[in-house]
């Protein structure tokens, strides 16, 4: 059983978000748990909340522009420690063995796990950053520079990389 988390969820396609408590999975040996401090909103979040693409499952906790501070690390985590400022974008895991993953293109992995609204490998549903905490494999977490204000950092995890990537 995981740890209780609190967030804002769409319970149907009305567009309304309401308080929601749920279970975040336990921190695995390669996982980082962090307190969410800021989460941006992306237009794709709005599409998912309203099920515009026909793939949403409810309850749905949106948010994939997430930043916060590490509160717990798994026993085999090497990249982060408690107190680090971190961020997570639209992916929380991938298969690590397909051609795309082998080339460092996890975003093309056919078995990638999106930050919210998808089934994780243990059959739990992923919930996004409109919540008080996140748990994610360390390989999908980004360290935030100490001099970057976290409120300004959140949108960089989607819109920022979308603009930067083609450059």
Q: Give the class from helix and strand content and strand pairing.
A: alpha+beta
- Ranges where pLDDT stays below 50 over 5 or more residues in a row are none
Overall 3D form: globular
Instruction: Indicate the percent of residues in helices.
Output: 10-25%
CATH architecture assignment: Alpha-Beta Complex
State which percent range the strand residues make up: 25-35%
- Largest sheet: spatial strand order: 8-3-4-5-9
Q: Quote the CATH topology.
A: Quinone Oxidoreductase, Chain A, domain 1
Structure summary, number of beta strands: 9
Number of domains: 1
Q: Termini, distance in Å?
A: 44 Å
Reading the helices and strands in chain order gives EEEHEEEHEEEHH
Protein name: Cinnamyl alcohol dehydrogenase 8
InterPro entries: ADH-like_N, ADH_Zn_CS, CAD-like, GroES-like_sf
Domain Alcohol dehydrogenase-like N-terminal: 28-146
Pfam families: ADH_N
Entry keywords:
9 strands; 13% helix; metal-binding; 167 residues; two-stranded antiparallel sheet; five-stranded antiparallel beta sheet; zinc ion binding; alpha+beta; Quinone Oxidoreductase, Chain A, domain 1
């Amino acid at each position: 059983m995981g740890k209780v988390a609190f967030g804002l969820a769409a319970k149907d396609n009305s567009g309304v978000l309401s308080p929601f408590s749920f279970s975040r999975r336990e921190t695995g040996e390669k996982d980082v748990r962090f307190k969410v401090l800021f989460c941006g909103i992306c237009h794709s979040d709005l599409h998912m909340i309203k099920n515009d693409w026909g793939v949403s499952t409810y309850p749905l906790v949106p948010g994939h522009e997430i930043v916060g501070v590490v509160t717990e690390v798994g026993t085999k985590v090497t990249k982060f420690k408690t107190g680090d400022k971190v961020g997570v974008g639209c992916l929380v895991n991938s298969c690590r063995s397909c051609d795309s993953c082998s080339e460092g293109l996890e975003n093309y992995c056919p078995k990638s796990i999106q930050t919210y609204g998808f089934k994780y490998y243990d059959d739990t549903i992923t919930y996004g950053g409109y919540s008080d905490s996140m748990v994610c494999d360390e390989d999908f977490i980004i360290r935030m520079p100490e001099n970057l204000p976290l409120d300004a950092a959140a949108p960089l995890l989607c819109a920022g990389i979308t603009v930067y990537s083609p450059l």
